[in-house]
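Proteins fold reproducibly. Take a tokenised chain:

. . .
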Amino acid sequence: MGTFYENSVVPDHLKREFNVYDRIKELNVDLGLFDDNVASLKGAGICGIIFHESGLVYLSGHGVGPGQMYDDPDRIKEGQDAAEWVANSMIKRLHWALTCGGEGGDLNDVIYTVKAIGMVVSTDVAFNGGPAVMNGFSEQWQSVFGGGKGKFAVDGEDESYSGVHARSAIGGFTGRFSIEPEIIVAIPPELAKAIIQNRGWVFPLPPAMLDKVKADQG
């Protein structure tokens, strides 16, 4: 388990006993390679992740999917699959944001999940399936970090509940995709401060910090 996590405020009876990377491997979530995921912030107007010294980590939303949602089981399933894909993509993004600078943290240092929002694209005023579509995201997140709706839960119980989050899931947006989730997680403040002091609070990295991180990797 992560050193920062072991020394965190989580009481022993609520700490995860599993390695989240074992679950990631079993779920066939591809974390990709350093060079493909640790990039420069040059020319960007927004970022993918912001670290706060309190330990809160804010992940920007990502919109994907085949298009507008409506209350048809097959269409809902397409939206759920898109939402699960976003969860996997955010897990990958968070992995590289936590590990690329060599401060000693990784996904095992996620203490718990704070808040998720799912904006589901639908102009159908009678659409009721926003929460069902967002479940594809929430359940995959719980599968990795722990929760009663995850794939490793048995009869609604898991070894940990650090993937369970407060959530809003609403429809009524426009766009050429199906859903855009975003999420906030908590890591130990000591890890957040180490990251900020070493390479800043933003991911992708400012150009000079990217050069530094690559040099340190080499």
Remarks:
- Helices lie at 3-6, 20-26, 34-37, 73-99, 130-145, 189-199, 207-217.
- The chain has one domain: 47-213.
- Residues 73-99 form the longest helix (27 residues).
- Residues 47-213 form a domain with the 60s Ribosomal Protein L30; Chain: A; fold (CATH 3.30.1330.40).
